[in-house]
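Components:
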Amino acid sequence: MVPRTVLLRANDEIETLNYSGFRDRLASHLADGRRVLSCFGTPQTEAPTGPPVLHAIVLGLTGLEQFCGRGTPGDEFPSLSALYPQMHCFEREIHEQFGLSFPGHPWLKPIRYEGRNLGRMDDYPFYQLAGKEVHEVGVGPIHAGVIEPGHFRFMCYGETVHHLEIQLGYQHRGVETLLTKTPPRKLPPLVESIAGDTAVPNVVAFCRAWESLCGVPTRPGVEAVRGIAIELERIAMHLVGVGGLATDVAFLPGSSTYGRLRTAIINLSMRLCGSRFGRSWFRPGELRYPFGPKEKDDVRATLQLVRRDLALINDLFGKSQSVRHRLETTGTVPTALARDIGMVGMAARASGLTCDLRNELPAGVYQQHAMPLVTEPAGDCQARAVVRLREMDESLSWLLRVIEDLPDVGADPPALLKPRANSTAVSFEEGWRGEVMHAIRTDAQGQIAHYKVQDPSLRNWFGLAQAVRDNAIYDFPICNKSFDLSYCGNDL
Amino acid sequence: MIPILEALQVRSSQGRQFVPDVRAANPVGFRGLPVIDMNPCADGCTACVDDCPTNAIRLTPFALDLGSCVFCDQCARVCPQQKVKFTGGYRMAARTRDGLVMKEGVATLSAVEASDRIRQMFGRSLKLRSVSAGGCNGCELEINATTNVNFDAGRYGIDIVASPRHADGLILSGPITVNMAAALELCYAGMPDPKFVIAVGSCAISGGVFEHSSVLDRSFLGRFTPELYVAGCPPHPLAIVNGLLDLIGHADGKW
Ligand code: SF4
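Structure:
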């Protein structure tokens, strides 16, 4: 049985329309308010330089649905972005990767400077704000802190930001090309480096996709430990984020306490698998390091301590006037806007959206142990901080429940069969930022013909750009930290 | 409760968090420095080489390049005779690229020699500027952690600074993408002389899992040879702090 977060189909079973049929179908899903999780292109096998095959993944009433669009040379694809802004990043990506033009796209700019745009970082078509007293502030690609590179260009009037343009691509490492040509058994370390702060959801999404292609049944014991690893990573990264916010608003008890609590969590991961980032913990069909009574005791003891101290600092953080003063009403993305631009994950939940695949499509251990949905209505920096604090609490309680009810892992990993030929496996996992997608398409020999990855950051960067509008430019660092997006996840 | 008491309660829950002696810490469970067994490999066995994702292993004689290794544990797991075993050792830095290659018969990496030049120029205080050029945020998080309350490199006079203008050295992470090559160059040019480069993590050192990517431009490293290489994927903060202390000839890690 394939888990609910995975869609496995033979390529010729996937409903395939022409471009205009594909566009109509997509538009009707969008009009119905369905969640379009992804829309991407793959090269046509017969004509790799021709119009790409388009794939849409939609969250339907009963689960994941996929349909394709096949074009012929000269076909037009009028942009959907003007009507449905959430499509803007998908169309931009397809445009950059395959040259398909999307007439009517308001914003057809490079997404990550790959392919024909490679190296042309000086060419970004920034919007211009006219007027004698307006000015622009450029920041990056290298920032003051130890973070990944990206360029931010603020169009300001006085201290007020009217518009922010985010130019990414500096981190482009050619991930999808490498994933497509690397022998499958060498894939996992690469998958774990797509976004090193999201190593676990990426490798779990990969494992599930690969296991379903190779006919390996999932095992409840392994699934439980995967869930444990994902939630530990979530707590650790939420601690980094809230600690960073505390630093940025000069709330020093928060910055040191959240920092050292994170150390406690990632050191627990290290004791469980050898890596503070959960690397090498999971491989297709395989749980590499034992998870027995000793490990269970370790998890319980560590989490109980963390929970005790976290409650103290959260209380202080929540009551601090100076913190609230900086975070409340800063960087607001209202619910309707968040929905329109297709925000996902933790940031979307802080704008009142209910998207969380652990809830929408509970699979694996989330099926036996439901994860409560956390949302906050306000959509400001405070809401994003509070969602993260509350999610940490939920994850801690969930983990303490799950370890008391661990299914047996079982002995040997089942053998991997040869991957199914001419098939597509699309696999999702809700990481700490939001949903991560891995889509693998095989050819007639069962070799990987195309590997597509999607990090939630691809969709959420535009949320940050919206959030800082009409805010003071000095609040940008806290807005940015509150979204906590991945540069390399976007740039691939 | 009165706010000040709550703050004190948080402070007392915090206790002492710093690692007292970074030379003698014990990161339980860490998969770090490998040890290589002296027994010869079985004839014709290539199990580790076949599976290594970064071609870090050479056979006859056996050698493992920590500058490429991502510590995935695969070689140790597929080896029929436990030729390689990973330990909790975190002293994984070298002054030269070749110094990261562990050879059969040599029990561990040679100690990192202090740089007289750096010692003379900067004494015991290092101000470093971090540049991520394709780093996945693994190395960046660990570089950040070197200055947190646990590893606290600041107590030794080592700081990460916000501007290249204030920096003595550049910490490079990531495999250096084409798209980031010019900015990296510009940043280094913006640092006052004398200056130097430190390569942190397997991507910066060798390209790591991205070695065969066609969208890298590693020519910067051809022109500026790092003074220090710190191995890991990502390197443990203890590896980074110890490497830096060695580089400036800090006698012990006690504080
Ligand atoms: S642990 Fe290092 S040497 Fe061994 S297989 Fe993995 S990358 Fe290669």
